[in-house]
Specification:
The protein is α/β, with parallel strands linked by helices. 40% of the residues lie in helices and 11% in strands. The radius of gyration is 19 Å and the shape is globular. The termini are far apart.
Length: 334
């Protein structure tokens, strides 16, 4: 779809969205009391990987939205040093929304390590996006970093066009951008708060999939980021949980819709993951305890989630996987 808007317009719109998100955050923050301290008698966290991951307590920190990874006191682990690429995505092209930090950054790095060129779409976290581009290029692949708001269908169309013009094709779409702001009660969720969540978390997924589809050929795939909240809910994330449930339904429906075209659609449903999303949502005292109630009694690091996206993206490993919601939660309860 053609658009007359220019990149500077998209960047200005994205900056305005980030400002609106901070306004919602400040209103919620100002209405809350400090959280109670955690239970010091809890069991130790579970470590099941090749090296130990950070445990609670995490740094007490509260970030301004949309959340910058470079501002986190504890840098998320995303490089997956034990992961060796084997060409599973050789010469393919991927778009990752919310690719500047967190899970998106970790996925971008592994996709590049597996041979893909990557376009990172992000809101206005310019420093983080520049860093992610550097990590992708360090893996020997090309990277575009494109700023804009996935709530705007014209931006999504423009971004896909830029990627196809730069790289000549499009094989993988990872819908990962998200907005999250907790609220104690339904009455605390204003219309602007609700629309930020709905339009980003599910509207943005529709916009990106629709923009990408004309360029996806047989063997291509779409991967959506869901959440444990889609399965279990969350009493303080009413709107966010609802959108994640919608993402699951969208994933399974689109998987059926595109099956005869040979385009697979799946989702990854992570449990708690140490990314800027939660420190930009929760009070600092809650951030220190983030993930300690999960089955592994700690949050995942992004590098523990990203291999699931490689599995679903590669025709070598995922050719018979379609319409799946893959839980990566550290246990059956998340």
């Amino acid at each position: 779809m053609a658009t007359s808007k220019k990149p500077d317009t998209f960047r200005a719109q994205a900056a305005a969205t980030a400002k609106a998100q901070r306004a919602i955050q400040q209103r919620i923050d100002s209405s809350e009391k400090k959280a109670k301290t955690g239970d010091p008698g809890r069991k130790r966290a579970v470590q099941a990987g090749i090296h130990a991951q950070p445990e609670n307590p995490l740094p007490r920190q509260h970030l301004a939205k949309p959340g910058n990874e470079h501002e986190l006191d504890l840098e998320p682990r995303f490089l997956a040093s034990g992961y060796t690429g084997s060409g599973k995505l050789q010469d393919r092209v991927a778009i990752i929304t919310g690719g500047d930090s967190g899970i998106g950054r970790a996925v971008a790095v592994l996709f590049a390590r597996e041979g893909a060129d990557v376009a990172v779409l992000y809101l206005d976290e310019h420093q983080d996006a520049k860093a992610t581009r550097g990590f992708v290029e360090a893996e020997g692949r090309r990277c575009l970093a494109i700023a804009g708001d996935v709530r705007d269908a014209a931006f999504c169309d423009s971004a896909v066009t830029q990627v196809v013009e730069a790289f000549g094709r499009l094989d993988i779409l990872v819908n990962n951008a998200a907005y999250q702001q907790h609220a104690k009660s339904l009455e605390d969720i204003t219309d602007d708060h609700l629309m930020q969540t709905l339009q980003t978390n599910i509207g943005g997924y529709f916009h990106m999939a629709r923009a990408a589809l004309p360029h996806l050929q047989r063997g291509a795939c779409i991967i959506n980021t869901s959440s444990e909240t889609a399965l279990f809910g969350n009493p303080k994330l009413l709107d966010y949980s609802a959108t994640k449930g919608a993402i699951n339904a969208f994933t399974m429906s689109l998987a059926s819709n595109l099956l005869d075209r040979g385009i697979r659609v799946n989702a990854v449903a992570p449990g708690p993951v140490w990314t800027p999303l939660n420190p930009a949502d929760k009070p600092a005292a809650d951030v220190a305890k983030f993930g300690q109630d999960s089955d592994m009694r700690r949050p995942a690091q992004p590098e523990e989630i990203s291999p699931a996206y490689v599995f679903l993206a590669s025709p070598v490993t995922g050719s018979y996987v379609n319409g799946a919601i893959l839980p990566v939660m550290g246990g059956p309860r998340g």
